[in-house]
Amino acid sequence: MARFKVYVIDPINRKGVDLLARRAEMVLWDDPRARDWPDDADGLIIRDTPVTGEQLRRATRLKAICKHGVGLEKVDLAAARARGIPVMNTPGVNAEAVAELTMGIALAVARRIAYCDRELRRGGETGREAYDGMGLAGKTVGIVGVGNIGRRIARKWQGGFDMTALGYDPYLTDAQWRERGVGKVARLHDLLPRVDLLTIHCPLSDETRGMIGAPEFALMKPTAILVNAARGGIVDEEALYAALKEGRLYGAGLDVFAVEPPRSDHPLFSFPTFVATSHIGAGNIDTRERCAVQVVEQVLEVLEGRAARNAAA
Amino acid sequence: MKVFADVPLHPAALEALAAAGAEVVGWDDPRLSAWAEEAEALINGPMRLDAAAFARARRLKVVAKHGTGIDNIDLKAARARKVRVARSPGGNAQSVTELAVGLAVALARRIVESDARIRSLAPFERGEFTGFDLRGKAAGIVGVGAIGRRVARLLAQGFGMAVSGYDPYLSADDWRRRDAARVARLDDLLARVDLLTLHCPLTDETRGLIGEAELERMKPSAILVNTARGGIVDEPALFSALSDGRLAGAALDVFAAEPPPADHPLFALPNVIATRHVGGYSEEALKAIGLKCVRQILDALAGREPEDAVA
Ligand SMILES: NC(=O)c1ccc[n+]([C@@H]2O[C@H](COP(=O)([O-])OP(=O)(O)OC[C@H]3O[C@@H](n4cnc5c(N)ncnc54)[C@H](O)[C@@H]3O)[C@@H](O)[C@H]2O)c1
Ligand SMILES: NC(=O)c1ccc[n+]([C@@H]2O[C@H](COP(=O)([O-])OP(=O)(O)OC[C@H]3O[C@@H](n4cnc5c(N)ncnc54)[C@H](O)[C@@H]3O)[C@@H](O)[C@H]2O)c1
């Protein structure tokens, strides 16, 4: 049987590479031929590298694309559809990692952990009063986008912190709301004034770009915390800056920015209750192993004639 | 009635004292140094209360400890002078719990390190800050009291960790009411956990409890959190374990000497997180504890038994 040729043009964990090596011919990201994938790839595995319509039109052998992770905004989906090539991703694999990261960020903001560490190391503020924080137990968390990650987050804050979980997600059925155990709030603007922690877990789309901006901050409690580990662009960073500056929000943590990596002189860095991480939501050894194996399995399944799992419509 | 406080008090506590007609000398008031001569009641934070202090404090009738750790108070001397001492267990337990868990996740996911790197001008690679999931891993709790039991519950129910505990003073019945499986020997706990978090008091028995031999028993991939008391962890031994890669990371809210100096050797390491003994510093805890201290003082001065008295 002719071996399929699969290009892995962005780095994936060794466990996935080992699996692929046993089942297909492969060209890896550090091989100069990797950029010529449109010439003869049967399968394509990507992470961040964009896939253009022009490349897709040239890639006559291509039968499957799978992204390691979620979010397919860098692939020309219309061009893939025109050619009948399924574009898949690996949802759910990193849900635990992202959920845990957002909780860690929320706690780091609430208790000024990063600020305190920074001050101690530079010999700055040693008065404990400067680090007076706030608790989260028993409060209310608002979840925007109650999908794989959002639903997991809800269970964690409920189980560990006895928090009340409310959510805004226009695409869930009533049965899904019940099964997810999250209180449905039909309008975002009704959710905002009720929450002590707002955590964003929806995709970036035309609908969600700038979704959390000045009018939304105006509706939130001045004691609330915002965490975004979904996608940059959903939160309007200038409006966030203004809200923090004017004391209309307690603090915020961002794993994702409109422009990444964010500049070290980003104005948000002036606040003690601001924490930034470098898009590390899924950056975790457990996830990488699971994800690399799954991305390879999904591509091989399609090449071997089975139905595509987790494909974009 | 003159009340001195060597810790900042929550506004609600100050209001309650004012309503009771007390004159308050606060932690940032220069008159605080005269406390021994003038105070009838003291709300005590870090200030040492040794035998000499009690001998000087002739008008003192009650000390309300703003917190739980009373290793700074000579209780025998207090009893000899008939000064009531009460502490406020439970009041900041949830607050310390949330800090301990926040530190654990921050270590596992290298949040503080990532934040610091973005702020510095040093470039970084995406994928550089690889961490690990807590879910499905093993946590060990040393001292499963008011705080330790909350941490156990949070890690088990919020993060799906398998939690074990070491606490030689709990009864079988106590263990049944904990979300932690009992491990009889500390050494056995150390070898099996991915996260070790300390919640015992500082006593002669626990001073240096986590030293070179104990760190040696831990997995090189494990992380350590100490929000209990400085002195329980041997800092030079911790430094060498962290710098040799025999331990993945450590977060300390408490140090042998506080505040820790900026040139503390541990601060040279990226896999360390340091906070400033702020376990009890949350709005909720400060309010609950401040109000409790006020109740204890008013009770003692009125000749009633203060809640949670230890002398
Ligand atoms: N920080 C990271 O490293 C990282 C890693 C993985 C995923 N993510 C981000 O997290 C997001 C959530 O991931 P997931 O796996 O839970 O995806 P998912 O598709 O399972 O869930 C997304 C949810 O958002 C809802 N949604 C869509 N439009 C919405 C809108 N306008 N308002 C509110 N809700 C809306 C959907 O109905 C769905 O329930 C992803 O879109 C991705 O951008 C970030
Ligand atoms: N970081 C902070 O700001 C902060 C704030 C409050 C308390 N603390 C510290 O946290 C510690 C725990 O507080 P708590 O309120 O849970 O106290 P607690 O008295 O309720 O619990 C302490 C537990 O430790 C156990 N213990 C005693 N000796 C032990 C030993 N040798 N080995 C193992 N376990 C032992 C006890 O049996 C008890 O169950 C306090 O002693 C205090 O030092 C720190």
Give an account of the 3D structure.
The complex is a heterodimer of chains A (313) and B (311). Helices cover 36% and strands 14% of the residues of chain A. Chain A has a seven-stranded parallel β-sheet with strand order 8-7-6-9-10-11-12, covered by helices on one side. Chain A contains twelve helices and twelve strands. The longest helix of chain A is centred in the last third of the chain and has 19 residues, at 285-303. The model of chain A has no long low-confidence stretch (mean pLDDT 96). With 311 residues, chain B is α/β, with parallel strands linked by helices. In chain B, the strands form two sheets. In chain B, strands 8-7-6-9-10-11-12 form a seven-stranded parallel β-sheet, with helices on both faces. A five-stranded parallel β-sheet of chain B has the order 2-1-3-4-5. Chains A and B meet through α5, α6, α7 and α12 of A and α5, α6, α7 and α12 of B. The structure holds nicotinamide-adenine-dinucleotide (2 copies). The site of one nicotinamide-adenine-dinucleotide has 32 residues of chain A, from α5 and α7.
Short précis:
With 313 residues, chain A is an alpha/beta fold. Chain A has twelve helices and twelve strands.
Distance between the termini of chain B: 21 Å
The average pLDDT value of chain B, as a whole number, equals 96
In terms of quaternary structure, the protein is: heterodimer
Low-confidence stretches of chain A: none
Relative helix content of chain A:
25-40%
Mean pLDDT of chain A: 96
The string of secondary-structure elements of chain A, in order, is EHEHEHEHEHHEHEHEHEHEHEEH
Total count of helical runs of at least 4 residues of chain A: 12
Q: Based on helices, strands and strand pairing, what is the structural class of chain A?
A: alpha/beta
Largest sheet of chain A: 7 strands, parallel
> How would a textbook summarize the main sheet of chain B?
7 strands, parallel
* Order of adjacent strands in the largest pleated sheet of chain A: 8-7-6-9-10-11-12
Q: Nearest-angstrom radius of gyration of chain A?
A: 21 Å
How many E-type strands of chain B?
12
| Percent of sequence in beta strands of chain A | 5-15%
**How far is it from the N-terminal to the C-terminal residue of chain A, by CA?**
31 Å
- Structural classification of chain B: alpha/beta
Q: Helix proportion of residues of chain B, in percent?
A: 25-40%
Shape by Cα distribution of chain A: globular
